[in-house]
Amino acid sequence: MVLLTAEYKRRINEVVSHIKRLDGDYRAVTPSPNMIYFTGIREETLERFMTLFINVDGEVLLAPQLIKLDDYLKDFLE
After folding, report:
1. pLDDT by residue (tens digit) across 53-67?
2. Residue at 37 is within a domain
3. Cα distances (angstroms) measured from residue 34 to each of 51, 53, 78
4. By residue range, what is the domain housing residue 43?
5. Residue 61, pLDDT score
6. Count of Cβ atoms closer than 10 Å to residue 73 Cβ
7. What is the count of structural domains for the chain?
8. Which of 35, 41, 49, 54 is 20 to 30 A from residue 3's alpha carbon, by CA?
9. CATH number at residue 27
């Protein structure tokens, strides 16, 4: 089961601070140890490309559908 816990939220807040320091807009994370670190999601790289986007406002989106991560996790767990 994957949950966006307080620890994952803290890690995402750290990357948001990093984005702001670099005067950036977002960070894109592909399936990798980084995706596991930020979300706990262990996804293989297959023909359907998955990317996690973290924007400067702390909003977390999961592509290919560009849905909010919390919505994805809620549907995944149901």
Report:
1. 999 998 888 877 655
2. yes
3. 11, 12, 25
4. 6-73
5. 84
6. 19
7. 1
8. 49
9. 3.40.350.10
78 part of a folded domain: no
Residue 25 to residue 22: CA distance in whole angstroms: 9
Query: Is 1 within a domain?
Result: no
14: alpha, beta or left? (left if phi > 0; alpha if psi -120 to 50): alpha
CA angle 63, 71, 37 (to 5 degrees): 65
Q: In what order do the strands lie in the sheet with 60-63?
A: 26-29, 51-55, 60-63, 67-68
pLDDT digits (tens, 9 = 90+) for 31-40: 889 988 988 8
Tell me: the pLDDT tens digits for 39-58?
888 877 666 778 889 999 98
Per residue, what are the HEC states of 34-73? HHHHHHCCCCCCCCCCCEEEEECCCCEEEECCCEEHHHHH
Amino acid in position 50: M
Phi, psi of 5 (to 5 degrees): -80, 175
